[in-house]
Nitroreductase family protein
Amino acid sequence: MMEKKQLLELLESNRSYRRFDSSVQLSEKEIRSWIEALRYTASAKNAQPLKYRIVTDKAQVDAVFALLHWAAYLPDWQGPSLKERPVAFVIQVLDRTISASSRFDEGIQLEALTLMARSSGYGGCILAAFDSAKMSDLLSLDTDRYTPITVVALGKPIEEVVIEALPTPDGDIRYYRTEDKVHHVPKRTMDQLII
């Protein structure tokens, strides 16, 4: 059984990683084991309307990458360099024949997926900034049935992410990078969360 401290350490290390070691590959088998864990997450009305497309083929990984927009708070950064790109993607898709909405389920399953990746020594970045129609076309999805919702970039993280406490409740929440490429993420303190 996982101890509270272990779970907290896993949650703290589960950041949005945007730079990866592209020489470290990730197998579809490993990703499938993480998606297997999603079966045990909560689902509104137990509808379970979310499906997943795994992308590990290099050509298709490159094609998915080309459709993504990275880090809105870093306007001068166009995304990871060639040697820092993700090696795999998981595309979260809503099956509209099951439900018109996947409210609540999306975040629960995405957190579970990235926690599974992190516990295996990998990391992810959840992206919602992409052209859904182009993604559907690229993945040959039945658009009468499926809608891509989010993309999870996956790989072996190479960036340092530092969590900082917001100094005030109305402080700046934008993440930023310092010249040494350390990624800083302001988070509200516990006292700011409890009302």
